[in-house]
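Q: Two folds, back to back.
A: First:
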Amino acid sequence: MLMLECPYCGVLADETELAPGGEAHLTRHGPGSSDDDFQDYLFTRENPRGVHFERWRHAHGCGKWFHAARNTVTLEVYGTYPAQTTEPPKEVCAKITGAAPGWTWRLFG
């Protein structure tokens, strides 16, 4: 079972207390954007095998959104952090690098 710690209230919650919100760190495009940018925002996702960054909501707790870094193959959780963060914290990246040598953070479009 997937267990994530809410970075706001500190509760270690299982996935039944949480609501998934899709891929994290997307560039959101709205009114005034090009059709191609808006199409990419709606439909283009990474869906990697391995390290992945996701949005989660502590639905049956504090109700706040947060990001989680985890491995989609092993379900290992590298860390959670506030949703307002534009890129993963250095300590989360260091933990990922220790578990998956050669991994590098890349900017999402």
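A: Second:
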Amino acid sequence: MRLTGPALRLTVLIGESDTWHHKPLFTEIVHRAHGAGLAGASVFRGIEGFGASSRIHTSRLLSLSEDLPVAVVVVDTEERIRAFLPQLDELVTEGLVVLDPCEVIRYTGRGAAPESEGEPE
């Protein structure tokens, strides 16, 4: 798959301990994004943060390090990202969903042929 030009970045900010049917919520989001044929998804674990509860979660305090912030980031075309949003409505009961316009400079899946001779993969 190749993707360049205007795109939409979807960021879902949730807690590491949030679950969906007894498995991590971030895992369910990634699997659904994959099932929807989106370009890709990455999960980033935060080291400190707070949300609507105003409780600071940090990796520096053992007692609060069990629910660190997690960001799931997906970039694809606006049409494909917006088509995916209803699934997030079902999954995310507490958290923050952010959409940002962005520009993809180059995205080529592994194993794809290079765009021109001499261009690195």
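Q: And?
A: The beta strands are 2-15, 19-20, 23-24, 41-45, 48-49, 57-58, 69-76, 96-108.
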